[in-house]
Design brief:
Blueprint: H1 2-21, H2 23-28, H3 52-69, H4 73-81, H5 89-110, H6 121-144, H7 148-170, H8 190-208, H9 210-213, H10 228-248, H11 255-274, H12 276-279, H13 285-308, H14 313-335, H15 368-376, H16 391-406, H17 412-417
Helix pairs in contact: 1-3, 1-7, 3-5, 5-6, 5-7, 7-8, 7-14, 8-10, 10-11, 11-13, 13-14
InterPro entries: DUF998
Region (Disordered): 357-418
Transmembrane segments: 50-72, 93-110, 122-140, 152-170, 190-218, 230-251, 257-280, 287-305, 311-334
Amino acid sequence: MRRGSALLIAMAVAIVVFHEFTSAFAAGRAHGGGGMDAAPGVAMHAADLVWALPAITAGAAVGAALVVASASRAGIATLAHLGLPGLGRDARARANGLTWGAIAVLGVHFTGEAFDVFPGGHSLAAILLGAGLGLGTFRLHRHAIEHEAYRTFNLIAMLLAVGSLASMSITPTGEWWTHNFSTLGTSDDIAAACFNIAIVVSGAGIAAMSAGLTRAVAEPRFEARRGGLVAMRALIVLIGVSLVGVGLVPIDGATDLHNAAAATAAASFAALCLGVQLWARRMPRSLVAGSYLSIAIEVVAMIAYDGIGVFNLTVFEIVAFTLVFAWLIALVAITHSTPATTDAATGRHLVPARAGARHPVAGAAEHPAARATTRRTPPGRIPSRVPRPTTRTAASHDVRRALRRDGADDPPDAAATA
């Protein structure tokens, strides 16, 4: 699944890069929106095909970097035999963070006018969002890189984001952000295909990974309630299937069915967050707090959109999508983290042994000399000096040997003069 996601991401990146490189697309874009059809008379020229090779190369490079960044230990070991650089934890986390940061910057670039209402305009928004998302995903990837479910789901989330970018770059729908996010899938061309395919594949990936995303919750340390794990997985599957419905049914087709699928995804996510303490008795506090915070953010966004009119439906939909994927990534990263070592009998936390500390040798209890040595010398400490036999001890030994040789009845003085 990771390789397939990386391949689709590479194709979407190639489309974005080709769009940015070609003068035809640049002329046809109205500051981050619209494609060739948005400006009359702008057409694709044969000379523009010269940018196809650099675009494909850029897409292949990004795809290869993501494959390495999301590789398992076995895959990294195989690549290490080939002598490839950049296989360390930090290098792989940087590749992931830079990709997410670039996604944020390009997202603002293609919807620049939507951010002009904020202080600093779209330029400041691009810097802040790019730096924040890049740094956050770098730290997250570095922390959770050993978890297979996280590495896979990270690419699924990235596929939806990059597929949306590809659609934004070439869509002929103009200022689509003034309507709603789903407008990207209504143009019946390659731009719509990029968006719809990305959301369908991402939704299917969520549904398929429901067991992997919640596998750690089944561990005894979380004390999952009866039916709690099944309920969590059912809600995650429902979120994924609903997103598939959003992609398969464009909003300009069966609008009611499209909206019903989107509402089902939102309701399933709300139930998943609100019932976080019902699924298991000892859910991590950070996950519980993040769940309630996600609900609060979504409620505030709904009020700001529908009640006050601070922003439009597109912003609300982006917030909702972001919360869903961020919460699922947090679920994996938090629940799969290594628990503290405890004594099963007492429940007390155990301190790991220090590096270099001596451990008792098996079989030492069978030898009295070994026991005596263990008592006299503290573990891990070298004796200050080794005792040596004294002259008095040697003389006593000679007297005893003489007595055994000449007879035990002779006095010691006689034996010594003899």
